[in-house]
Design a protein that fits this description.
This protein is 35% helix and 12% strand. The chain has helices spanning 13-22, 61-74, 101-105, 120-123, 126-134, 153-165, 169-181, 207-215, 223-227, 238-242, 245-250, 261-272, 284-291, 315-318, 362-376, and strands spanning 5-8, 29-35, 38-45, 55-58, 185-186, 257-259, 313-314, 327-328, 336-340, 345-351. It has a seven-stranded antiparallel sheet, with helices on both faces. Strands 4-6-5 form a three-stranded antiparallel sheet. The two termini are 28 Å apart.
Length: 377
């Protein structure tokens, strides 16, 4: 039996059972769930793992970054349909003069990387990424299709925010979201919190499984290869990425977040339902705009899995038992996080080991168990 720690509220016992089954054999996983602002699930498993342990959440970071954008749109500071080059003239190079913030957030800009690739050191720093992207020609005509910019998208967003406000996306997140709610979710992990970080481990597989996987890996200069940093020399090592202190310290806004399940679930609860007696961070109108599906159909980088709201993934399309406007973001090491405004759910999940094929079927089982329990109480 998997030794699961933590608590569940009455009616959520089946979630604990599903988590135990999902986490069997893992070296660390966490699950936290809020329903209408009340935490009803707080579970963890694994050696050296508690509910307070921090690890790399990779692209679940994009949910935190998008929340900052939504707040600044709500404030009237940012305009979704204004060309980015109006604030950042250098961005107009190579046919990018009409690309808007909405295009970038919905992955329709064509900017998924740069010719020649970005080193791991460059990918640690949003300002460096933004300078490289400013001169890059899009990989497809902006607006004609969508494709996931896994490591670079929010460097553009960060630059727009810096120009508009004089402060970084990271600073806005810290001051408006993380600190006021005491969330264990960081864009830039302070040195004082380093002892709580546990490294992400590579996936395990048989030689036959690995051979089959690598036989089908896209070429480094394909659209998929560029989107995942395979066109760099050497190709990006995703496992090593967040296990590097400099990456964690800088906290680039596309994929370098550090946190735990409580932090992920708490952020979505704060955004949609309110936490600890506070009002929700987002108004219904802004929430509706950002939760609305924007880019559906086949993603040029990720394939059929790429279904997006605005900045967030469209979780109502990913999990058909959720409501149409459910939204959130997962991460390549296996984290998952979302809110279902109609169902009252805010969900956060982390794991410390990559799947060798980037496949995480436990997401479906855990999300379904949470939905069924929440609907019954």
């Amino acid at each position: 039996m998997t030794n699961v720690h933590g608590t569940v509220a009455e009616g959520f016992e089946a979630v604990r059972e599903e988590f135990a089954a999902a986490a069997a054999g893992e070296n660390g996983a966490q699950l936290a769930v809020y329903v209408h602002g009340r935490r009803v699930v707080d579970l963890w498993v694994g050696d050296e793992v508690t509910g307070e342990t921090l690890t790399g959440v990779y692209s679940s970071t994009k949910g935190a970054a998008t929340l900052v954008v939504a707040l600044l749109v709500q404030d009237g500071v940012l305009e979704l349909d204004e060309p980015i080059a109006g604030r950042w003239p250098e961005f107009a190079a190579a046919g990018k003069d009409r690309i808007t913030l909405r295009d970038v957030l919905s992955h329709r800009s064509g900017l998924i990387g740069v010719d020649g690739g970005l080193t791991a050191g460059e990918l640690a720093d949003d300002e460096v990424i933004a300078r490289r992207l400013a001169g890059q020609r899009p990989y497809w005509r902006p607006g004609s299709a969508h494709g996931y910019g896994g490591f670079v998208t929010f460097a553009i967003v960060d630059k727009v925010i810096r120009v508009a406000t004089g402060r970084s996306l990271r600073d806005h997140f810290e001051q408006r979201v993380r600190a006021p709610h005491g969330l264990d979710l960081y864009l830039g992990l302070p040195e004082a919190q380093e002892d709580r970080y546990r490294e992400v481990a590579p996936g395990s597989a048989s030689p036959e499984e690995l051979a089959a996987f690598w036989a089908n890996v896209p070429g480094p200069h394909s659209i998929t290869g560029i989107g995942y940093g395979l066109n760099s020399t050497p190709p990006l090592d995703q496992v090593a990425f967040l296990n590097t202190r400099r990456v964690r310290a800088l906290g680039q806004a596309s994929a370098a977040g550090v946190g735990n399940a409580r932090g992920l679930a708490g952020m979505y609860a704060a955004a949609v339902f309110g936490l600890d007696g506070r009002a929700p961070l987002l108004t219904p109108d802004v929430l509706g705009e950002f939760a609305m599906p924007h880019s559906t159909g086949r993603d040029l980088v990720t394939g059929d899995a790429g279904q997006y709201a605005l900045g967030f993934q469209a979780k109502g399309l990913r999990y058909p038992f959720l409501s149409a406007n459910a939204f959130g973001h997962n991460g390549s090491a296996g984290s998952e996080s979302f809110a279902d405004p109609r169902g009252g759910i805010a969900f956060g999940y982390t794991r410390r080991r990559f799947a060798f094929d980037w496949s995480y079927p436990e997401h479906d089982r855990l999300a379904a168990a949470v939905h069924h329990a929440a609907a019954a109480v």
